[in-house]
Amino acid sequence: MSRTPDQGRNPGQGPAPGQERNPHRGPNGNATAAAGPRPNPHGVLPTPLRFGYGTNGLADLRLDDALALLADLGYDGVGLTLDHMHLDPLAPDLAARTRRVAHRLETLGLGVTVETGARYVLDPRRKHGPSLLDPDPDDRARRVDLLVRAVRVAADLGAHAVHCFSGTVPDGTDEDTAWKRLAETLTPVLDAAAGAGVPLAVEPEPGHLLATLSDFHRLRRTLGDPEPLGLTLDIGHCQCLEPLPPADCVRDAAPWLRHVQIEDMRRGVHEHLPLGDGEIDFPPVLEALAATGYQGLTVVELPRHSHAGPHFAARSLPFLRGAARTAATATPSVPPHGDPSATPEGSSTP
């Protein structure tokens, strides 16, 4: 069972506005502290973790209201899913609307990651369709266009990464063809990311072509290990299907880590659960994450809990902070595995 920190505390009670905010932030909440593990003499994690909450779990709120809620609760940032209700990437005047959101984030002191997992933003009849793997080249181009738009939005917002995923393998498509399509369709997105100076963080997603950390490394090698290509690590997905425990996944993923999503989950079941409702032991995960020197956002992802989004946002932050405090008093941090120049054969990563 999950280890639930601060059990004596009201889980719905967040800190007062402005309290316990991470001081290691510049404008837009971007990290300013130096990367890398640091001494841990007084129960402080080597690198202060920065927690966010995903707007896909606040879909019933206006974006301005969602951002204000997260700032009031004391979050460091937001995982902003571009969707019809939250900074619609296909509606007119995207640049002007993006500037307004950038100003709002700046005013509230929130960092941001741009996420692209909206279910029906491109097609009202196909969940997450069309994908990068679609048999129709025009449909694949629509997904590429969405991701390139997301890169531009991320650059204008000062986001630390753009998240995306591969999609499922279409019926009648063999895997070799699917991998070829994925490499081809991501190439212009990576070019845009390189030009904008914003990493593209691909997420291994259960049931998708790119489902595991091993699959991410296959893509990385196929593309020649381009500098803009990074990884979104979903901690729940590690619990669900990776062979290693989540904390070990964090250490193995460290050289490529650009974005982190977090929720609870059970082994073999792809269901995003509120923190404490599944099987993950969170302090070792957060200790491993801090030891890597990761300075992006760690974003709570509860997309099926929007009906009670404010409640779960208020509950999640005290849980994570309690787990981080527990981690800080544990055994000294283990250095991350490998480095960005390590070959797959020279490290524990595939």
Automatic annotation (TrEMBL):
Pfam families: AP_endonuc_2. Residues 67-321 form the Xylose isomerase-like TIM barrel domain. Keywords: Isomerase. GO terms for molecular function: isomerase activity. SUPFAM superfamilies: Xylose isomerase-like (SSF51658). Residues 25-37 have a biased composition (Low complexity). This is Sugar phosphate isomerase/epimerase. Coiled coil: none annotated. PANTHER family: HYDROXYPYRUVATE ISOMERASE (PTHR12110), XYLOSE ISOMERASE (PTHR12110:SF52).
